[in-house]
Amino acid sequence: MTYETKAGRVKGSITTTIPAALVNILNIEKGDKIVWDADIEDKGATVTVSKKEINESK
């Protein structure tokens, strides 16, 4: 799947939205913590987005 979102600015941070299809697939609800795992490479980055499970210690 490929989605395109627009970046915005909130208090010095850059924000974006998580597309509705991914919200549904990951079962994300308001207040959930989201994990952004980035693999940085010479030509860019690969980012994996997941919902942090309640029983995770991190």
Automatic annotation (TrEMBL):
This is SpoVT-AbrB domain-containing protein.
